[in-house]
């Protein structure tokens, strides 16, 4: 037989559950595209625009459940564009200082970027992944006119991807702010040619993709879209 105290407890639990549901339902839900975050102007877009996809492009849809709202961010996984010469010179100077390597004029910059530990980086065979990075590092050094850098935002879990000395920190957050403002699963890469044209892939990728892109520079760095 249910006592009055037990009944009161059940009623209290029910009320708290209902309040939680009501509170969640009252949260404002807003939609942004990633360009807005990079420019730090946070221009809201409509849900209809958020849901539109362009043929030939692949998107991530990120959702962040904040205290007072639900934030949805639309991310175009592959992106091309061009940075000004001043920004290119700044990136080259910064990479040279951090790594101790000179970037010759005319070289394509290749940046393999590790955002930090996530579900993707928490699994997989450690020795297989480490050897894969070593093979990539050796193979890309054989390509002329390419300067390659392995960068990280957070070093947690990075030992799986080879010796930590193999990696350099995005010390001033320049690469993140300019190209990779969010944490994309399984890492990303950025290619920048001698004229400041760039090609970015956000999220999981295969090393062979990079070699193919470097073989076809004309296609890779033309028809730039923002």
User: Which oligomeric form is depicted?
Assistant: single chain
Q: Which percent range describes the beta-strand content?
A: 15-25%
Rg calculated over all Cα atoms: 23 Å
By DSSP, the count of extended strands is: 10
Question: How many discrete structural domains?
Answer: 2
Indicate the structural class. alpha/beta
How many helices does DSSP assign? 8
Q: Do you know the CATH topology of the largest domain?
A: Glutaredoxin
The major β-sheet equals: 6 strands, mixed
Identify the strand order in the major beta sheet.
5-10-9-6-7-8
Q: Return the string of H and E elements.
A: HEHEHEEEHEHEEHEEHH
CATH superfamily of the largest domain: Glutaredoxin
Q: Give the termini separation.
A: 68 Å
CATH architecture of the largest domain: 3-Layer(aba) Sandwich
Helix content: 25-40%
Overall form: globular
Unreliable stretches (pLDDT < 50, length at least 5) are none
Using the coordinates above, name the CATH class of the largest domain: Alpha Beta
Question: What is the residue-mean pLDDT, rounded to a whole number?
Answer: 83
């Amino acid at each position: 037989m249910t006592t009055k105290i037990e009944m009161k407890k059940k009623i209290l639990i029910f009320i708290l559950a209902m309040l939680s549901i009501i509170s969640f339902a009252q949260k404002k839900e807003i939609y942004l595209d990633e360009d807005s975050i990079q420019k730090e102007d946070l221009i809201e877009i409509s849900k209809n625009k958020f849901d539109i996809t362009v043929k030939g492009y692949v998107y991530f849809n990120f959702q962040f459940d904040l205290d007072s709202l639900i934030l949805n961010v639309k991310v175009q996984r592959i992106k091309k564009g061009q940075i000004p010469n001043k920004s290119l010179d700044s990136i080259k100077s910064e990479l040279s200082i951090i790594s101790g390597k000179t970037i010759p004029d005319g070289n394509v910059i290749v940046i393999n970027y590790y955002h930090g530990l996530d579900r993707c980086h928490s699994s997989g065979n450690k020795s297989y992944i480490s050897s894969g990075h070593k093979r990539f590092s050796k193979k890309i050094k054989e390509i002329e006119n390419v300067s390659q850098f392995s960068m990280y935002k957070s070093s947690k879990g990075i030992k799986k991807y080879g010796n930590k000395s193999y990696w350099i920190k995005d010390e001033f957050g320049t690469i993140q702010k300019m190209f990779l403002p969010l944490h994309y699963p399984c890492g990303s890469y950025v290619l920048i040619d001698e004229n400041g044209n760039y090609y970015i892939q956000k999220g999981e990728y295969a090393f062979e993709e990079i070699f193919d892109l470097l073989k076809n520079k004309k296609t890779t760095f033309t028809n730039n879209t923002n």
